[in-house]
Amino acid sequence: MIINGKSIKGERTFEVINPATGSVFTECPDCTKSQLDDAMESALRAFPGWGKDKTKRVQTLHECAAALKSHGDMLAQILTREQGKPLKDSLYEINRSVSWIEGVVSLDLHSQVIQDDSAALIQAHHKPIGVVAAITPWNYPILLALAKIVPALLVGDTVVLKPSPFTPLATLKMGEILRNLLPPGVLNIVSGGDELGSWMTMHPVVRKISFTGSVETGKIVAQAAAPDLKRIDLELGGNDPAIVLPDVDPQKVAEKLFWGAFRNNGQVCIDIKRLYLHEKIFGRLVQEIAAIARAVRVGDGFDPASQLGPVNNKPQFDRVIDLVEDAKKSGATMVTGGEPLGGPGYFYPPTIVTGIAEGTRLVDEEQFGPALPVMAFGDVDEALERANATHFGLGGSIWTNDLDRGAELASRLECGTGWVNQHGVVSPYAPLGGVKWSGIGYQFGLSGLEELTEMQVINIAR
To answer: Among this protein's residues, is 325 annotated catalytic?
Structure first.
């Protein structure tokens, strides 16, 4: 682990499993409460000095990006071993993370002049908030860690980060790479399970919690933050709908729709989770998507032929199996897939499900895996009503050749981001957040930077 700029061994360890084999391949430090206290105190000590010089912070973050790029191949190897994704996708994640850093550091929060006249000068300034506790999931360990770390460090905060216990290793290795570039205590990375997460969210040093994960855990985080009035941003689960209008060419949109649902094996908060197709194109488009699903190679991430790897962990693997089996019992049709692949590891094929409707768990719940319910609609207003009839509200998309109509329909989706003719595209410059149960607050863009600061108004009488 990285605490106060030093590489610290754990007094105890926990096992890390390779999802391609289902077997333990190494052990990881399990942070104790006293070690977490050390990390928090070091972040608190580092905060005043780190917040003073923005020019130095920007320069240091550029150096961090260069260091990660130079170690990209090594990090990608570790990432594939613990997360399961194909090696080329792991390398893409590292490279995307580097470009994300460069994008974030180009942003600048300016002070605002509210009044400047003979009576008064009133200005609003953004000041760093303090120590940020960041907790990240297992689907994009490096990218989502840096999406929290870099904005916080840019505005002058310091960070204590906990990666998922399913994928801690690449994040810890990243910490080793960066520890000699950052002043001691500015970035601390500790590893452990749910108990460590609970300690972090209740720790008195923390002034802000940034969490990405499930709705259930997000609610627990919010409860833990309340007694101390810690600031929070929660990017939680999604059950994103995609609505495809009858004016599209099924052959032209099928591949985008497939990968919008199945990239990273469907293990993306903002993937397509429910697909609504107009009845005029339903049969043809299902056939096109199914053909892609049948042709996709699922296998070990170190096999160059693999396009999708295993589901990351046994609990999630079992959840996908359970949801698909429940759909079968309801009478749904498995157009492709529907059964785990044989052999060791958590392999499940891309599964296209029709003959299914709202009220079925696979439709109503977030599957976060390679199973997609596909449903027909006749009227777009009906489709929007069905799409919005959920506690979730992270993203959604409209697919049509009429871009103006697409934008208008996307604005009627009850979600944080509405896409037209694409899905799940994010940018370091654009805020990302959810409505309803899908989150509180925003990450990315200037809005994300603002959420990592406190505003102070200076009011001068003249």
So the answer is: no
Residue with tokens 């994640």: 93
Domain-located, residue 130: yes
Active-site choice (28, 64, 93, 235): 235
Token pair, residue 379, equals 């009227």
Q: How confident is the model at residue 342 (pLDDT cuts 50, 70, 90)?
A: confident
Helix boundaries (H) for 228-333: 250-262, 282-295, 314-329
Please check whether residue 140 lies inside any domain of the structure: yes
Question: Whole-model pTM above 0.90?
Answer: yes
| pLDDT recorded at residue 383 | 98
204: domain range? 2-236+436-461
- Whole-number Å distance between alpha carbons of 170 and 451: 27
Q: Is residue 430 part of a domain?
A: no
- Distance, CA of 403 to CA of 394 (rounded, Å): 21
Q: Strand pairing partners for 455? A: 126
The answer to whether residue 428 sits within a structural domain is no
Among 64, 269, 288, 451, the one annotated catalytic: 269
HEC readout, 63-102: HHHHHHHHCHHHHHHHHHHHHCCCHHHHHHHHHHHHHHHH
* Whether residues 359 and 252 fall in one domain: yes
Same domain, 191 and 295: no
Is position 279 annotated as part of the catalytic site?
no
